[in-house]
């Protein structure tokens, strides 16, 4: 890896937690220079502007989540087990290498909804990728006879994601992790009901 690539990666890895905790609007250039120890010129010598850093930071944070979830899913042999593995990751954020600040998809989607079209598109693409992944798992379960043939894979994926993200939002909003536990139990029941 060339020095410029290493510097760029360092900036992304160092600022990604800040963007995930403070959001795009709340993260300042001073935050970025303080965290990295680099000058404004060094940061903007590697990125065109704050937008480019934020987009790369989101991609970095989301990739961490995807890798973590995929690793847990790959430990399971059944479609049901793979879906339950997703629940396990989101239920136990502290015991996994989850990005500081919580789910980057939730955080970015809420903030970028009307204020940052490029960041919103990145979050939308991440959501669609996650949904496609769950649809594939559910369809595989239907084909294998593990889930009922009448299960709507797309509706199931949307429901599971909405429940998971809603659980995280409610627990963050209230500061009460038991809310996440309660909703995740409902997610597990939804998965068990697919059989």
Automatic annotation (TrEMBL):
<keyword id="KW-0804">Transcription</keyword>
<dbReference type="InterPro" id="IPR036271">
    <property type="entry name" value="Tet_transcr_reg_TetR-rel_C_sf"/>
</dbReference>
<dbReference type="GO" id="GO:0003677">
    <property type="term" value="F:DNA binding"/>
</dbReference>
<dbReference type="InterPro" id="IPR001647">
    <property type="entry name" value="HTH_TetR"/>
</dbReference>
<protein>
    <submittedName>
        <fullName>Transcriptional regulator</fullName>
    </submittedName>
</protein>
<dbReference type="Pfam" id="PF16925">
    <property type="entry name" value="TetR_C_13"/>
</dbReference>
<dbReference type="InterPro" id="IPR011075">
    <property type="entry name" value="TetR_C"/>
</dbReference>
<keyword id="KW-0238">DNA-binding</keyword>
<dbReference type="Pfam" id="PF00440">
    <property type="entry name" value="TetR_N"/>
</dbReference>
<feature type="domain" description="HTH tetR-type">
    <location>
        <begin position="5"/>
        <end position="65"/>
    </location>
</feature>
<keyword id="KW-0805">Transcription regulation</keyword>
<feature type="DNA-binding region" description="H-T-H motif">
    <location>
        <begin position="28"/>
        <end position="47"/>
    </location>
</feature>
<dbReference type="InterPro" id="IPR009057">
    <property type="entry name" value="Homeodomain-like_sf"/>
</dbReference>
